[in-house]
Amino acid sequence: MYLHIKSIIYRMLGILYPKRCVACDKVLLKIEKEIGFCRECAGKIKLVGPVACMKCGGPLLDDRKEFCNNCAQAPKAFTQGKAIYQYTGNMKNAMYRFKYGNRRCYGRTFAEHALHYYGGWIKSKNIEVIVPVPMYEKKEKKRGYNQATVLAKALSDMTGIPVADKIVRREKETEAMKQLNALKRKKNLLNAFSLQKNVVQFKKVLIVDDIYTTGTTMDEVAKVLKAGGVDEVFGISVCIGECSD
Ligand SMILES: [Zn+2]
Ligand SMILES: [Zn+2]
Question: In whole angstroms, what is the distance from residue 98 CA to residue 150 CA?
Answer without folding.
Answer: 10
